[in-house]
Every structure is written in structure tokens, then in C-alpha cells.
């Protein structure tokens, strides 16, 4: 009986070992597929990001032409040189400007280019429009940077070349960046595949709503020229190509009804054709293939990637062999253990001991959980106390500022009232002594009394305004109620309560908040945010400076959204400080008046109560800009009270 149990345990162990080996093989295959997919996604993502970077640069140049459409060769050369793209984002062949030239103006255009001395003192006497054609209009490459290595493209009439003309007309009518199909660049003697992406440039102050209007306003294109092999050499890591094959095929314009190109006309890139890269040998591994579609200038590129066997995409047989040997040994040992009664009893005793130890560990875990609950409750209470202290400190600062600000108008009123009382008594004395007064004396007394009344009226009006602003801010912050309010009034009231502190710190305030921006939200929460931002600027931004400037700007950019910008020209923040600016209890003024809760509370109020977003931008020595994007009508539902986000 005992022997049969041993055999049964042995065969069961062998079965479990085989199942484990199979599981390891499947897991290794899945890991290889995951590694390949991650590499394939990286190649596709890097290519898309690099192309988007070039296209963003192209739109930037287009934006320059939108401001001033008469940019000469020297200005174009300086602007492209300042971009330093050859060092920052290498991989392109040239940046060009293509001018639309009517056929009647072709001769005058050629003469103007030949005599252009903005860069070359001798001009370009050898300039020639090529190939010669009779058409209207001409699309001629006028500027190309760099010119060296791209001389053949200088003066090229793209209207005479069908692939270029099709892309130009599509970009002209759509107003978008449009790429050509696979072409061979005129400046490339190697015959490598290339393409050109162009953005149309229109005359300023002309309507562009329809295709006909865009055709009438068109006067040129800005373009970036690529050799695909050079571009992909910058995008894909060369060591990665030793384990995979990358091919890019052009499927044509995504909204075109024409048949897509095929064969050699469609292939833009094949890593297997690059002699400088050690290519993988053999056939692609089963399951290691990926295909992704990239949208490049209105064209659809198909990115096909295959993985090959090697150090990167291979599974090692060693773990499987090791598991098999160990499983065989363990199965034999378990079988021998079951045969031996003594060993079974020892195992039972060991199991009982393990169960007792497990029970003790369970008791320890329960005790630890109970202790953790107490600590969590204590931490919650401490959090509530900290938030209350922070709010009371903010209100205390408001009270102190308003009290200091009220001293001046009330003091002026008291002084003027005393002076007026003295003048009245003097007037009564003179009236009693003389029995009558001259008209000039009466008029002088009335003028002085009127002036005193004006002084007291203006001073008390100033005090009343301050009290009204403080009362509104205090009520809003204390109640936290939702109501309709005007943004300019909340900003004005909040700044009024801080006027004394701002003036004492020599801080100038510039406000550009349009009237009529009416919100249905929580004015107290918004005032709390502004108060914390002002306090941060005074405590951190202008630390060690005699003065500074704060700018508050609001713009109604979307239908129901307002962008509120709070900026200062203070000392700014380092990258590490900016990274932790919203962390609770993080402050650069620990023990010097900073609690580390201000910006954390600002973040939670903006994203919780106000249901908006917040972004902070700062550099050392260049000040700090806080951008709030707030809905003019807060979403319905219970607002989220600000709390520490630990």
C-alpha cells in the first residue's frame, strides 16, 4: 500500500513537472512577443513623434508668414538657422519656400532672384527656372536651406512634375500639410526614396473659408524635404535593426479614390536594404510581426515590422531543463518520503508546526491592522487640524491687511473732523465777539467746511469699499456657497484685501479681466485660490527683492470656459521644486512662514470644487505662471471639499 502511494506520488510529480515546463515555455514565448511588441510600438511612436516635430516646425514657419508675407531670403535664412534643426532634430534634407509665380511675371521673378544680394554679394547670376514649361501658374523653389547640397532644387518648377503638382493643389485647397508620394529627390544622385511635406502660405487679411478663397489667397508653400533612409536612421536605433526588419509602404492619400501605389512605387523604406546595418538572418519568427498605420501629411503609411531569432527575441532552454531535472528529483524524493512512515510522521509534525506558526502570524497581522486603523484615524484628525489652521491663517492675514488698510482713511476722517470742530468753535467765537461777520470771512469758513466734508466723505467711502470687499471675501470663504458672480468683482475684492501687503512689499499689480464674465460657481473657493497664489508670490516669488509685479489676466477662449492666468516676475522655481509644487507639506520656507499646504490646497480646490485644471510653469530667474482653466458653470453635484492628497 505504501509502495503504491509512492509510485502514484512519483508519476503525479512527473506530470506536474511537465505541466510546469510547458507553462515556462508558453511564458517565455509570451515574454518574447511582449518584448517585440514593445520594440515595435517604440519604433512607430518614435517615427510619429519625430514627424510631428518636423510638422510643428513647418507650421511655425507658416505662422511667421501669416504675420508678414514679405520675408526676404536673408530673413528666411536667419530664421531657419536660429531653429538649429540640423543639431536638434537631424534627419531632413532641406527646408524650402516655394513661391507661386504667374506665367506673366516669370521673367521679372527670375531677374529678381538673380539680383538678390541678401546672402550672396554677387547674387545668383546662374539662376534658372527648370524644367522649362508653359503653364500658369508656376510653383518655383525660391529659398532652400541649406543651399549647399541642394543646388539642383534651386529654381525647380514643381508645377511641371505631376507628383508634386498633385500634392501642391491638395494642400492649396485644404490648407493642411500635405506630403508627396514616394519620389526621387532631384538633389539626390543615389536614387534613394524620399518625400516632401509642404504647408500652404496665404496672404494676410484674406478670407480662407472656402477652397476658392484659399486659391485666391495662396502665394507660396513652406516645405521640408526628406530622404526616408536618413530620416529613419535618426528614428530607429541601429542595434535594434539587428533583430528586426522594418518596412514602410505608402498607401496613398487617405481620402483619395485612386488606387494606392504598389510594389517598388509604394516601398519607402526597408531596413534589409541598408548595407550599414547587420541584418538578421533566416525567417521571421512566428507571431513576431506588427503592422501599424501612420498618417503623414494626408497620406497613409503602413509600418510593417518583423522580429527574427537572436539574443533579443529568443527563449532559453536552460530554465525548462532545470525545472525538469529539479522536478524529477523532487518527485523521487516525495515518493521515497511516502514509502517511509517515519518520514510521513515527521512531515505531519512539520505541517502542524507550520499551521501553528501561521496562526501566530495571522494574530500578528490582525494586531498590526488594528494599530494601523488607529494611526489612520489620528492622521485624519491631524489632516483636519492642519487644513483648519491653514484656512484660519489665511483669514487672519486678510483681517490684518484690511485693518492696516483701514487705518489711513479712518485716521484722515478723524483728523479732518477734529480740524472742522476747531474751525466751528473759532467761527462761533468770532461771531460772538464781533456781533457780525464779513461776507469774505463767512465764505472762507464755508469753503473750509466744504473741503473738510469732501475729505471725510472720500476717506469714509474708501473705508466702506474696503469693508464691503473684505465682507464679501470673508462671507464667500466662510460659507463656501454656490452663487452667480462676476469674475472681475471677485478678483478686485480679493486684491483689495491684500492691498496693504502688496504696497508694503513694493509689488505692482496689473489686472486684465474683462467685465461681464459671469460664473455660476463657488466664489469663496476661487478667492481662496487667489489668496494662496498672492501669498506664495509674496513669500517665495519676491523673496530677497525690493519689489515685483503680479499680472492677472482672464480670457474667454471657449464657449463655457475661461482661462485665468496669474503670473509674477519673481525668482521662479527649479525643475525639482516645480515637480513637487503640489505635494503636501513640501515648502522651501520650512520654519520661515511656509506650511507646504498652500499649493496642495489650490490644486484640490481647482480640480475638486471648481472642476477645472491647473498648470504651473516656471524657470529660475524668470518668474512663475499659474494657468487655471475654469468652467463658467460648475458641474452639478456635491462639490469635493479640499483635502490633503497624501
TrEMBL record:
<keyword id="KW-0175">Coiled coil</keyword>
<dbReference type="InterPro" id="IPR003661">
    <property type="entry name" value="HisK_dim/P_dom"/>
</dbReference>
<dbReference type="InterPro" id="IPR003594">
    <property type="entry name" value="HATPase_dom"/>
</dbReference>
<protein>
    <recommendedName>
        <fullName>histidine kinase</fullName>
        <ecNumber>2.7.13.3</ecNumber>
    </recommendedName>
</protein>
<dbReference type="Pfam" id="PF03924">
    <property type="entry name" value="CHASE"/>
</dbReference>
<keyword id="KW-1133">Transmembrane helix</keyword>
<keyword id="KW-0808">Transferase</keyword>
<dbReference type="InterPro" id="IPR005467">
    <property type="entry name" value="His_kinase_dom"/>
</dbReference>
<dbReference type="InterPro" id="IPR006189">
    <property type="entry name" value="CHASE_dom"/>
</dbReference>
<feature type="coiled-coil region">
    <location>
        <begin position="348"/>
        <end position="385"/>
    </location>
</feature>
<feature type="domain" description="Histidine kinase">
    <location>
        <begin position="401"/>
        <end position="634"/>
    </location>
</feature>
<feature type="domain" description="CHASE">
    <location>
        <begin position="67"/>
        <end position="304"/>
    </location>
</feature>
<keyword id="KW-0418">Kinase</keyword>
<dbReference type="GO" id="GO:0000155">
    <property type="term" value="F:phosphorelay sensor kinase activity"/>
</dbReference>
<dbReference type="Pfam" id="PF02518">
    <property type="entry name" value="HATPase_c"/>
</dbReference>
<feature type="transmembrane region" description="Helical">
    <location>
        <begin position="318"/>
        <end position="339"/>
    </location>
</feature>
<keyword id="KW-0812">Transmembrane</keyword>
<keyword id="KW-0472">Membrane</keyword>
